[in-house]
Specification:
Blueprint (H helix, E strand, L loop, with lengths): L3 H30 L1 H13 L8 H13 L3 E4 L8 E7 L3 E6 L29 H22 L3 E7 L8 H7 L8 E8 L6 E2 L3 E10 L15 H15 L8 E8 L10 E10 L2 H22 L2 E10 L6 H14 L6 H11 L21 E2 L9 H5 L4 E7 L10 H7 L2 H23 L1 H15 L21
Parallel strand pairs: 3-4, 3-5, 5-12, 6-11
Antiparallel strand pairs: 1-2, 2-4, 7-9, 7-10, 8-9
Helix pairs in contact: 1-4, 1-12, 2-4, 2-12, 3-4, 4-12, 6-7, 8-12
């Protein structure tokens, strides 16, 4: 026979489960009811793509949405005009949700399954940050409403973080101490699959190397000239030779942003823009020092002068399994995307534009990837990395793009401007909101997540931003 004590325990567990399910349904229903409202906001941002640190209208729209919902908003934080912190509640725990909203240059695209720019050479949301920012705001408001209805103590914050694409907005916000009291930080990112694994990324230092020479007539008096372009090319040649002598996980890539004005004028100024990445920020620093040495040697060999500016520097993501498992559980509960017949046709047409060998189907958008812990980063870099070394952080990817789509492509822009992107955005908002509510309901979570952070940081860790003491490069996209 079951004892009375066990009966009471089972009854309490059942009541608690029903109570929890009711709260979850409240959060999900509130987001479903506002799906069209948030879809309109995301489309406004998509239709007006603004580059890093220039996202004035996008930032103002998200701030207004939060203010109208009852958040207090501080704008221009960390000396960045488009950065903001929106807050509701008081005391611990403090749960943060990060929102991005910057676009990329050169990838303008209409919401159609074939290449057709809105403006030739214009900007576009090829990384889906119009969805990112809107979903994070939606999640923050849903959590705030839930806290009010259930008299939950604590603080919910939404961090408006500009210029993720190479500008490192979060680095300057973290360095300014805006996240020091946060107990758990949540984020997400548009993608081509649904995945809430605890994963890392690549640390990155990006730098502009500028060479200064002396102009001269390239045919009549070449002996009087000192070619700044020779300096750039000599540096790039040595950097390419360096590829053989760095760890195999390293990624180095560059573009020549200025190479001269005319072939018959010896270039007096030239510039190249370099990235160096690796799963470990310490290794990135070491390789970057070799890159600088190559630039110095190139300047000496071409009798030019060289200076460099670190534009951005970000840490690798530090996984937090404690928070990520909660995120994964909620993603499974919410589920993936189910396409309508029209969306399926759009996806099939997009898939036809992929290179041969990309094996995918529209149905893959419904799948949830199995949970994994990936300690070693690969792929891209993100300024979320710096935050994750200071605050327990968890994120997820959602299939806002057609499965198989690569980031930073016209296909990503196209899907992001359709109902496919908006459906994925709401899946992200629901998962973030449910995860935040779980953290508020269980005080043990933040303690466990903090203990894991300390363990992964290692003894004696001290945060030192890879950008040094420079101010945010507010003009890097101008």
């Amino acid at each position: 026979m079951i004892s009375k004590r066990k009966t009471y325990i089972l009854l309490f567990a059942l009541l608690w489960a029903n109570f929890t399910m009711a709260q979850e349904k409240t959060i999900l229903n509130s987001l479903d009811q506002k799906a069209e409202f948030y879809g309109t906001i995301s489309k406004q941002i998509w239709s007006n793509p603004e580059l890093g640190y220039l996202e004035t209208e996008s930032s103002e729209l998200l701030q207004k949405t939060l203010k109208d919902a009852g958040f207090s908003v501080k704008t221009g934080v960390a000396d960045i005009p488009t950065a903001f912190v929106a807050e509701f509640g008081s005391g611990a725990p403090v749960v943060g949700i990060m929102a991005e909203f910057d676009a990329l240059p050169g990838v303008s695209q209409k919401a159609v399954p074939f290449r057709e720019p809105v403006v030739e050479g214009g900007a576009g949301h090829a990384c889906g940050h119009h969805l990112f920012g809107t979903a994070s705001v939606a999640a923050g408001i849903a959590v705030k409403d839930w806290m009010q209805q259930n008299k939950i103590t604590g603080t919910i914050r939404v961090y408006g973080t500009p210029a993720e694409e190479g500008g490192g907005g979060k680095v300057y916000m973290a360095r300014a101490g805006l996240m020091e009291d946060v107990d758990a930080m949540l984020h997400w990112h548009p993608g081509s699959k649904n995945d809430a694994s605890a994963s890392s990324s690549l640390a990155n230092i990006s730098t502009k190397f500028r060479f200064y020479g002396e102009a001269s007539h390239a045919a009549a008096a070449p002996d009087r000239g000192k070619s700044a372009l020779d300096g750039v090319e000599a540096m790039n040649f040595m950097v390419n030779l360096l590829r053989e002598h760095v760890p195999q996980e390293t990624r180095m890539h560059y573009v020549i942003t200025r190479g001269g004005e005319a072939p018959n004028v010896v270039p007096a100024f030239a510039e190249s823009y370099h990235y160096v990445r690796h799963p470990d920020a310490r290794v990135v620093k070491e390789i970057f020092a070799k890159m600088v040495a190559a630039a110095e040697g190139a300047a000496q060999g071409t009798q030019t002068k060289m200076e460099y500016e670190v534009i951005n520097g970000v840490y690798n993501l530090l996984p937090n399994e404690t928070l990520s498992r909660i995120m994964h559980k909620n993603l499974q509960m919410v589920g993936g995307l189910k396409y309508s017949p029209e969306e399926t046709k759009f996806a099939q047409d997009i898939i036809k534009t992929f290179p041969s060998g990309v094996n995918t189907s529209p149905e893959d958008a419904q799948k949830i990837a199995p949970f994994e812990v990936n300690e070693k980063g690969s792929g891209g870099s993100t300024d979320v990395g710096d935050v994750s070394w200071l605050v327990p952080t968890a994120g997820l990817n959602v299939a806002t793009w057609v499965p198989g789509t690569s980031a930073h492509t016209w296909q990503a822009v196209a899907a992001g401007g359709t109902s496919i992107g908006q459906k994925g955005m709401m899946i992200a908002a629901k998962t973030l909101a449910l995860t935040a509510s779980d953290i508020f309901k269980n005080p043990k979570v933040t303690a466990e997540a903090q203990a894991e952070l300390k363990r992964r940081q290692g003894e004696g860790f001290k945060y030192d931003a890879l950008v040094g003491d420079r101010t945010a490069p507010l003009d890097y996209r101008k």
